[in-house]
């Protein structure tokens, strides 16, 4: 239970990538953390790209980001929606400023781009947004997982077995 006593936000919106939300959430919970699903509205069912549901525990407005130790941003098409919320960008900027773990996979890099935190940061993502990442100042690598301090990034679902342990490890630093 290496994450016992830790609290983590997992952002959700319609069309999240099903595995990129649920695999990390379940593994981080198994490691002992309390993970809250946070979306635009509380107690709302959101659906992944393949139809898997996820019910939000809280809305963006309901939480105090200072009460959390890390954040997970899943991919899919939801990052394009999530980055339109000032609160979401504020969350990401807070975790960046405090050097607390930020996990992002696939298209989730869009949220970090919109938060303006990728200048000079080593990352990966789905190759489809490589240009977006590099244009935001990131140093992009085609690897299963890239850890640069507190920012842990991954490309896509087949990389989840490498991504989640790296995210968990970031809490030890």
From TrEMBL:
Keywords: Hydrolase, Protease. Pfam families: DJ-1_PfpI. Belongs to the peptidase C56 family. The keyword RNA-binding does not apply. It comes from the Bacteria. GO terms for biological process: proteolysis. This is Putative intracellular protease. It comes from Listeria grandensis FSL F6-0971. InterPro entries: C56_PfpI-like, Class_I_gatase-like, DJ-1/PfpI. Residues 6-169 form the DJ-1/PfpI domain. NCBIfam families: PfpI. The keyword RNA-binding does not apply. GO terms for molecular function: peptidase activity. CDD domains: GATase1_PfpI_like.
């Amino acid at each position: 239970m290496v994450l016992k006593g830790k609290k983590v936000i997992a952002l959700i919106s319609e069309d999240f990538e099903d595995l990129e939300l649920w695999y990390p959430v379940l593994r981080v919970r198994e490691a002992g953390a309390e993970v809250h699903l946070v979306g635009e509205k509380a107690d709302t069912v959101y659906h992944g790209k393949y139809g898997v549901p996820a019910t939000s525990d809280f809305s963006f407005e309901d939480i105090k980001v200072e009460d959390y130790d890390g954040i997970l941003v899943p991919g899919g098409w939801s990052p394009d929606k999530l980055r339109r919320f000032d609160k979401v960008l504020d969350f990401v900027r807070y975790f960046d400023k405090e050097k607390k773990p930020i996990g992002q996979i696939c298209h989730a890099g869009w949220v970090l781009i919109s938060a303006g935190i990728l200048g000079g940061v080593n990352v990966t993502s789905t190759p489809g947004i490589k240009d977006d990442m590099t244009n935001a100042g990131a140093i992009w690598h085609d690897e299963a997982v890239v850890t640069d301090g507190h920012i842990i990034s991954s490309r896509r679902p087949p990389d989840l077995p490498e991504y989640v342990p790296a995210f968990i490890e970031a809490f030890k630093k």
